[in-house]
Amino acid sequence: MLLKQLTLHSQPARYLSTSLARPQSFRKWYQQLWTTKRTNLPPYGHFTQIGDPVLRDKAAEVPADYVDSKEIRAIVDQMVSVLRKYNCVGIAAPQIGVSLRIIAMEFNPSIKKELPDITWKTRQMSELPLTVFINPQLAVTDYIKHKHAEGCMSVRGFSGEVERYAGVKLSGLNREGVATELELSGWNARIAQHEMDHLDGKLYIDHMDRSTFMCTCWETVNTKSGRVEIPFYK
Ligand SMILES: [Zn+2]
Fold it and tell me: Which HAMAP family did the record assign (predicted)?
């Protein structure tokens, strides 16, 4: 009980403000995100890190009236900007500190050049143009599971092997608010499952094979006598 109280009292004030409690108060909630100093309030230009309560919250649906609004467009634009700045393949709104059900994915051809061919093939990777889903739902279309190492920009510097379904179908609204569906397989299906988990406050570490959890730069830590930094900025 004492621990619970301490935990609750130690939450930063913005924890309360990044979650949308009631759809009807959307405008008021949204404005406070932007009207206070931008330097330390969401929507961030960096990835929130594990421990931040926003990553454990169940994100709220974007209210229907606001799906095609300048407010949501600004959040989506910020998500895409952060996604591309960090050169990664997926992002969910809680990762920029906004507890709303929005995800963005993009498997840019440039990433392929950085990967060995064998990785591309065994992980069944394929290019994916920028895809945004608002209030998405996920259905499994192929129940075969594949286990691969996976990382998360919100658990920076680590990876672990996770089993994911081989095929899924996403349905929801695109960034223009139009109902849309998308079937994904292989690595892109993995990205979708990973990002959908973020909307329910789940991280890959919750269902990884814990024996495979590792610091991605552990070898460099040895060769550089520990002089390695994991940057949280770009
Ligand atoms: Zn993630």
Answer: Pep_deformylase
